Amino acid sequence: MKKFTVGLFTLALILTACAPRNTEQPLLANGDSYPNPSYPNPSYPNPSYPNDDTSTDITSAQIAALAHLSSTLNLSADQIALVSIEAVTWPDGCLGVQRLDVMCTQALVEGFKFVFEADGREYELHTNATGSAVVIASGLDINPLLEAVLMKQLAENLGLEPDTISVVSNEPAEFSNTCLGVAMQDVMCAEVITPGHIVVLESDGVQYEYHVSEDGRRIQPATLALTWSRDGGIAGFCDRLTIFLSGEVYGNQCKSQPNGTMGTLATLLSAAEREQFQAWVNEYGLVTLDASDPKGVADGMTVVLKLYGSGSAKPLKGAESDLFTWAQMIFQKLYE
After folding, report:
1. Backbone angles phi, psi at 140, to 5 degrees
2. Three-state DSSP class for 289?
3. Residues 328, 262: one domain?
4. Same domain, yes or no: 238 and 312
5. 118 and 151 in one domain?
6. Which among 12, 122, 22, 34 is positioned nearest to 68, based on CA atoms?
7. 2 found inside a domain
8. What mean pLDDT comes out for the span 324-336?
9. 34 and 118 in one domain?
10. What is the mean pLDDT of the chain?
11. Residues 6+ apart with CB under 8 A from 180
12. Among the three residues 119, 138, 157, which one is the final residue of a domain in this structure?
């Protein structure tokens, strides 16, 4: 199983499929207008630069920026117009484009800011002096890519046919914290307003909600299905399991693997086992079950399960036992 930072999914692998690895950066808003009067001839190629004293590396940086944008947009170079160039001293190794969970070297970096235009949209790119590092800072519309990634992820998580999944809505949102508004067991969230999107997918009449950061690199499933925790006992357990309806499964075992482990229902369960879990979710409502040892027992163990069902029934004793057994089985499979 792969280690993960609890609660986060990323689009990095998808984005790097169409961009060099050193360009993985968020897409920030750009307020520049087109055409830019300071550079009246936006046609490309245009080797001249408005300031004669600019570094002679401008040509290689410009070529690298254009090539990267051309590849990203799948457009030929002659379909992209140069709007403006500005020599810039970037404050860090990320070329002035910050991203959550990414550390940037604090050394100053000489480089350029390019603004290109293609199909009526402007794109701002940052480079170092030679063009060996290129970052798209703004302009890309990530929504189509984001929705495609989410649908692919949902299909793989639950073993669904991709053509059965559709997008119900994709709306901008402001989340109250860096966990994108989704609380998870023992996960601390910085109380910082975080802009992003709420995307709702649907398959076979069931809806699945995802929260996504504005730059598209943090994806958090938001429709809880089940949580399970086990603490204490002679062994000193401190185990956590969180399952989302969309099939993401998180485990945390504070002793051996404190950074957590991730899996999916499709990889952990057979089709019949997934159907059984979906049946429980459909039949039962919000259920809290407690299988803890009585208070006062030496080395007592606390075991609590919560099911976030969409029905209204309550499980009988036999079904309660089945749910606890099922949750513990999932947790064990995460660590096999």
Report:
1. -70, 135
2. strand
3. yes
4. yes
5. no
6. 22
7. no
8. 93
9. yes
10. 81
11. 7, 194, 196, 211, 212, 213, 218, 220, 222
12. 138
Examine the pLDDT at 145 and tell me if it is beyond 70.
yes
Residue 256 confidence (pLDDT): 61
Range of the domain at 134: 28-138
Report the distance separating Cα 289 and Cα 29, nearest Å. Answer: 47
Is the alpha carbon torsion for 18, 23, 27, 32 positive or negative? negative
Q: What single string gives the DSSP state of each residue in 220-269?
A: EE--EEEEEEEEETTTTEEEEEEEETTSEEEEEETTTEEEEEEEEHHHHS
Are 215 and 233 in a shared domain?
no
- Position 330, amino acid: I
With 0.85 as the threshold, say if the pTM is over it.
no
Tell which of 221, 241, 270 closes a domain: 221
Same domain, 238 and 323: yes
Query: What are the percentages of helix, strand and coil residues in the chain, rounded to 5?
Result: 25, 35, 40
Which residue reads 């800072």 in tokens?
A: 137
CA atoms of 327 and 232, how far apart (whole Å): 17
Question: Average pLDDT of 195-209?
Answer: 95
| DSSP state letter for 9 | B
Residue 9: pLDDT above 60?
no
Quote the DSSP letter at residue 156: H
Q: In this structure, are residues 301 and 237 in contact, taking their beta carbons and an 8 Å threshold?
A: yes
Residue 158 domain flag = yes
* DSSP structure class, residue 96: T
What's the pLDDT band for 160 if we cut at 50, 70, 90?
Answer: very high
Which helix (H) or strand (E) covers residue 149, if one does? helix 143-158
Q: Give the tens place of pLDDT for each residue, 239-255.
A: 999 999 999 999 988 76
As a whole number of angstroms, the longest Cα–Cα distance in the chain is 82
Examine residue 248 and state whether it is found in any structural domain, yes or no: yes
Mean pLDDT lowest among 48-62, 69-83, 153-167, 186-200: 48-62
Q: Which whole-number Å values give the CA distances from 17 to 71, 161, 188, 327, in the listed order?
A: 11, 23, 32, 36
Tally the domains of the chain: 3
Residue 305 lies in a domain: yes
Q: Are residues 165 and 250 in the same domain?
A: no
Are both 122 and 81 inside the same structural domain?
A: yes
Could you give the CA distance from residue 165 to residue 204 in angstroms, rounded to a whole number? 8
